[in-house]
Amino acid sequence: RLWHLQGNLFEEVQSASLAASAACRLHQSAPDNAFEPILARAEGQPAAEGLVLINYAVELEHAGQLTQVTDLLSRAAEHMTQSGNLNGVAIAANNLGLRHHLDGNLVQAKHWYRESIDLTIRTGDIRLLGLALSNLSELEADLAGLEDALMLLTESGQSATVELIQRNLKANLIAMRVS
User: What is the pLDDT of residue 96?
Assistant: First the structure.
């Protein structure tokens, strides 16, 4: 509410979007109910709208509601591009790569991972760069590239991200063995 009083829409929407994400994760709200009013508030402000769309897509995906995810992330990338937020575009691109990867659209996944990598090299977001590199390396079965991505993350103090990637890789291997 403080952001609202000071007239700073981006911070207001960012705060509300994070609260909506938390409500979804705690099963206190469905993603549509949590994000639609925030998205309406952000309308016409590309950076704010892009941020809300990314968080909304992530929570829909987490809830297993996949039908809108790719469209929301594409719209987020467009809004972030329009606002000049290259890091926001890179986040949307990596998430688009992941969605396509999981859907088996490997050509599209590679395209979006590479887009994210190119942008994060320019923005300097080491955590996102490591995530996108590890995602692309996993897709291409490039173990040396994966090791390099994990080393980059470890050396930059991103040990929690390394642990997340390792857990995801283990889960993927287990799922591959079961199927």
Answer: 98
At 160, is the secondary structure helix, strand, or coil? helix
> Is 31 in contact with 24 (CB distance < 8 Å)?
yes
H helices of 68-142, in order, are 69-83, 86-103, 106-123, 126-139
| 73 within 8 A of 96, measured Cβ to Cβ | yes
∠ CA 154-62-90, rounded to 5°: 50
Q: Are 41 and 13 in contact (CB under 8 A)?
A: yes
Q: What are the tokens at 107?
A: 């050509």
Q: 21: pLDDT confidence band, cut at 50, 70 and 90? A: very high
Encode pLDDT of 140-158 as tens digits: 988 888 888 888 889 999 8
Cβ neighbors of 124 (< 8 A, separation 6 or more) are none
d(CA 91, CA 80): 10
- Which is nearest to 38 in space by CA: 10, 66, 70? 10
